[in-house]
Amino acid sequence: xxxxxxxxxxxxxxxxxxxxxxxxxxxxxxxxxxxxxxxxxxxxxxxxxxxxxxxxxxxxxxxxxxxxxxxxxxxxxxxxxxxxxxxxxxxxxxxxxxxxxxxxxxxxxxxxxxxxxxxxxxxxxxxxxxxxxxxxxxxxxxxxxxxxxxxxxxxxxxxxxxxxxxxxxxxxxxxxxxxxxxxxxxxxxxxxxxxxxxxxxx
Length: 202
Ligand SMILES: O=C(O)CCC(=O)C(=O)O
Ligand SMILES: [Fe+2]
Known about the structure:
The chain is an alpha+beta fold.
């Protein structure tokens, strides 16, 4: 029998106003989530992220990778990037996520946080290359980490504790009105992988 929570969660908008966030807990068994986590740790072409900020070359501790339908070219923070083609495992994950959100995605940015020392600062995913008001689906594997939203004007905050296998979708006006971050923490020593499936404008 489906649990009440399973039925309710995805349909509820987690944001109080100015956007839409949907949350599915544990879309995989813990065994499958662990298997995907281990596969991705090994198979993804992880690289430190780079940026040129005020003429200074910055290299992040967090690692990233970018996969897509096409070898898209993309520039942010003055660094040029080219997407790699989907691997079979990434395609399987994409299909699973698409079945939940009922959306389709043509690219995925992956983040690898080795420990709680690594996080992501407040930002919105509002780059011009992304479809306006499109869906961004974020899948977590590995260590539990906080994922927070802060409204740009009211400063209202919401915090989620994302567990291995959790899926969170942002869409509609979310990126125009809310920032999100992954705060650092001294409590976590294990890696976390995050996959953000995105809709690039083509
Ligand atoms: O790691 C996360 O959960 C968030 C990643 C993120 O916000 C991004 O890649 O834009
Ligand atoms: Fe983001």
